Amino acid sequence: MLHRLADYRWPAEWEPHAATWASWPVNPATWPGTFERIPAAYAELVAAITCFEPAFLLLAAEQQTAENQRLLEEACARRGSCFPATFVDIPVNDSWCRDHGPLFLTGRQESAAAGSQLILNWDYNAWGGKYPPWDLDNQVPDRISQFLGLPALRPWLILEGGAIEGDGAGTVLTTDSCLLNPNRYPHPNRAAMNDTLCVWLQAQHIVWLPGHGVLGDDTDGHIDQIARFADETTVLVAAPADEDAPEAPDLRANAAAVSAASNSRGQALQPLPLPLPAPKFEGNSRLPASYCNFIHVNGAVIVPTFRDPADDTAMQILQTCWPDRRIVGVDCLDLIWGLGGFHCLTQQQPLAGAPKTPQA
Fold it and tell me: In the chain, at which residue ranges do the beta strands (DSSP E only) sit?
C-alpha cells in the first residue's frame, strides 16, 4: 500500500499519547561503576509515566527477570500507577529509545489517512559510531512496526529522535552541530538536510541553532538538551547557572538564534530561559544535566531533578508553561551518568486520530 506523506503530520509531544516507549537498561558500560543502581532508578521513571499513560518496555525475553519485574511493580505501587507497564520481547543494545526508536506520524484529520499512523524508521549509528555495537538498536523501529501492525517507511537517513523538536504545526528545531556533523553524513549540506526534513517530517520551516552548550553531552548537541517548544511561539532554552560558566557563550548563541527566528506561520519565536542546575559530576566527568530533557505524558510533564536548588525553579517555570498539567519531578542523578536524561530514554506514541491540541 502506498502512503502519501502529505496525508500525515508529526504531532507535538504535548498532544495526546497512546503510550510511551522505553528500553530497559541492559548495558553496564553505559553506567560504569554504578549499574547496580540503574534498574531501580529507571523503574521510578517508568512508574511516574504509568501514573498517566501506558508504557511499553523493550527487553529481550530472556532478560525479563523476576528482579526487573519486582523493581517495576514496587515502584509503580509507591507512586500509585494506574496504567500498565508491559515488557515487549525486542532486544536492544542500550537504553536510548528516543534515538533508536521509531518516530510516529499520524494521519491528518481532513485526509484519507485520518485515524491512521505510520512509523519512520531512521537509520541509527550510536551518535556517529561512538558506542558499538548498535545492530539491535537499529532494528527497533521495524520490530515495533511489526508489533503494532503499523506500516514503516525508511528515509535511509541517520537521524536520532533527540536531534529534532517539533511544534506539531510545521516548525522543527534542530542543531548544526549534530545534523551537519560528518560523523553522521560524510558531506553534510544544510540546504539538502533542510529539504529532507521538510519532506519526511512534513514540516514547512526548519529553525537551525548552533548547538552544544550542555557540557558532558556526547550527542554532538542534541536539541532536546538545549531547546524545547513550550508552544508554537515560545521556546524553552537552556541557560547557564552562572553567567561566567564555560558553557555560557554557547547557550547564549542558541538563545540568540531562537530570538532571530520565526515559526512556519511567520510569528517570531520567543526564548524562555530554563537555567541549568549547578555542575554535576561523576568522578571527574561532567554530567549533561539539563531540565530541557523533560517529557510530556497525558496530563503531566515529568521533569528530571538533580538534588539541586534549581530543581524547584525549573519546575515552577514549566508550570507557567503548562498551568493545566501536573509537573512531576523524578530524581535523575543516577541515570544522567549514562549521559542522557528522561527525554533521551523515551519515545512517545501519539494517539491516532486525536485532534491537534491548540497552544497559545
Answer: 8-9, 17-23, 55-58, 85-88, 103-107, 117-120, 152-153, 165-166, 171-175, 205-209, 227-229, 234-239, 270-275, 280-282, 285-287, 295-297, 300-305, 326-331, 346-350
